[in-house]
Fold Phosphatase PAP2 family protein.
Amino acid sequence: MKLHATLILSVLLVAACGGGSDGNHSAINASAPPPPPPPDPTFVDNAPIPDVPAFVDNIATNQRGDARFAALNTNAGVRLVSRFLDIWSPLTEIVDAGVSAPAVGSFPAIVPSTWTGLPNDGTPGGTVLNAAVHNANIQFAIGETTNRTQAQADAAYFDDRRGKGFSVTDGMGPLTDAWRAAAQQTTTITSIPANATTVLFNDTGNNIGVGGTANPTFGHVVDLLSAMGNNASTEPGKRFYKYARPYRWSSNVIVDPTLVPAESADPTTDGGYISGHEAEAMRDALTMAYCLPERGTEMISRGLELGENRILAGMHSPLDVMAGRMFAIAATVANLNNPANATLKTEAFQQAHTALEAATNTKPAAFFALAHSGTLATDRFADFATNKANDIRRMTFGFTQIESTNAPPTVPKGAEVLLETRFPYLSADQRRVVIKTTEFPSGFPVMDDAEGYGRIDTFAAFNGYGQFNGSVVVSMDATQGGFSANDMWRNDISGSGKLTLSGTGALQLTGNNSYSGGTQITGATLQADSATAFGTGDVFVGAGTAIMSASSPVKVGGKFTVLPGATLAMEVDGSGGGQLNVGGQLTLAGSTLHVKFANGFAPKAGDTIQLITGGVGNQQFSTVTVDGVNASAVYSNGTVSIHINS
């Protein structure tokens, strides 16, 4: 019920101003003007395009059949993963002056020479330049294949023999069956045959499904997945780098017995660097995440998992897989930016939602909840913390940094396209900054390419900003639905910048945040789902709503201000959850307090429940609503409680 301030039967205890050092006991004049909002920083963060030849502009140079000219100066795919040349120098030869090959940038005019041998017979395909990294690379494969479980071996078999597009769709969790049915996906690898150790079984299913007019409800989605494979072959890279698969480097790498029939008899056409399976799988996963961003982080997790399964299979080394991930991101960025796919990608996004909402009989507003309705028993990607830990581990597979650890992040040209369906309410420049502020640190082997693809952490980027630098102004429009109506940023946000939220949507902050520039709500709803959601600065609610829903009291280190017409909502669980602790001035005059009880908490008549502590001031709410009970507000020098009357 609503209790107006003039009618509230409350207790108002005001301590006299004194010379003591405890400012929390200093009274503030209720008629004094409220403090100003946190100052706006003087700049807006950006992520300039690197001044190097862009993969997005040159993907067409990566041609599968171009064996002779798969070179640094002619092939964007080869160049993308060329930091491997710090670790390994492949056999090469100088191109004749008269050769007509399409050069891209000022790179050495070298092409691969013939690779005729194996690492252990004295004629490898090149020279190891960094023995420590190379040895760690092979040793990791030894450890993974020596210690793998049977479940891991089985997963490695399926990810090797199945079509990659079919394999990764189980990352859709509760939507897997609906996706596969809509796409009309099929596979013939449904179990591991008893004779798999001696017979090679190939998947004769349709991998990504049926596209075009033959599939009117999902054909655009399948067509987009198909388009992402344009100019996306890893063969030129394999030919150029001539780096053997791990089992050829060491007999201690144990290929999964069911995959021994898949070993190529000719190592000269079977290079390990880069992983084609990971490149294709991650490309499919990213495209599915684009079409259905509600399962974006889970699909990215699935793509990364397939890469690790290639190591567990004994077929690839970590560096092979890391480069495959880089190549997948680059190919996806380039093809999503291709003007020829502009209409198709919009149609695919719309079709994926229309078809799956219909197939699951789900309204758009409930679709996100359905996409995350699985448990660990039915969806192995149901736990965010596990997915996050696996992402961090799989980004580097335990390699230590070998170069500068604090090089500034770089964001490739066009990379923001990866996030345009995930953050429709952000501008393209803001999406670039999201990628920039979530990039992995520098210095890891092969990851420091000139454009920045190696350091892109797509999992982290799908979870919002990693830093607030300068002024971050976000406007959400709930009428647009989807993430524009409700979103959650789950990263730990640092930086000295300020967040300003406006509009009509709702945004949740769940991370262990430390940004210091303050938080201002000029509309919309900002929900604190962690004790440090608001960072360390002031919080100013000029309009809209601030919700306290963390499992422990939300901490505001500076001033906390709620102006007339704005609302402070508190979801109180009786154990500290939903409460607020303010370190500075508390200003509430003219605003609304809305309290509801969460997690089964049911206070009884006569109970007094503390809501706000630590604030300096005695100003009161103009309206107080406590769901389900008759209650009175109790004020005492910055402390606010409610007393349950009945």
Observations:
- The longest strand covers residues 519-528.
